[in-house]
Amino acid sequence: MKSETYTRITVCDDVVAMARVVASNLVAYSRQCVADQGFVTIAFPGGGTPIPLFNMLRSEPFASEMPWAGTHIFVSDERMVPQEDDQSNMGSVRRHLLFNMPVPSDNIHDVNTQLSSSEASREYSEELTKVIGLKKSRSDRSLDIVMLGLGEDGHIASIFPQSVEDDDKSVREVNYAYQGRPGSRVTFTSDFIRNAGKVILIVAGDNKSEILREILHGDHNELALPAQRILRKDSPVEIFCDRAAAVELLTEFE
Length: 254
Fold this sequence. Notes:
Layout lengths: L6 E6 L2 H23 L2 E5 L6 H7 L4 H4 L5 E5 L1 E3 L9 H10 L18 H16 L12 E4 L22 E5 L8 E5 L1 H5 L3 E6 L5 H9 L19 E6 L4 H5 L3
Parallel strand pairs: 1-9, 2-3, 2-5, 5-8, 8-9
Antiparallel strand pairs: 4-7, 6-7
Helix pairs in contact: 1-2, 2-4
């Protein structure tokens, strides 16, 4: 069965243009959340794809427009390594985005990587519940913004092909070695991601073009292509990609 997706796709000329468009989108939505409830909750991904966005958010006019003091920062997944390690997702967020920015230290929510992945996932879930509970709307079940990257195998966060999830959880432990990177991790579940106020998927590079086409227009197989788990009618996703990542999508319309 072909995949039926409910998304808005924005194709940008390059990664810098994509970073600028996403930064504008992120700042506008964050300001609205702060106006409505006094703060905004955001989860960022790891890897190299968001780094141009981090640089953009640190530059003007976005650095002045972003409501840093009212922003709570999470990561959508984390490897169980110290933050000084290059493989740490929050370490990357701190180095490339948060360094010398006016975000209160209490608003930066780290995964405790000194614990076991099982214990860390439980603790992070409790931290999420505490912060989400501060919202005016008691119906909220997730964060305001969850941003994700896309793996070449179709994974998002640390939800990998053939993984089975527990829909009752917001965070789960993972043990999966991917491209030689640390296998012990914690990750948001797809159910928790789908319930976010805004889900943003950023995709860059020609090495992602085939998998992007597959998750959007290939056979629907959520077990093999975890990114399809968030592409549902009741949880639309905003996809931002550069022209290189979109080349196979664009070819379909030529």
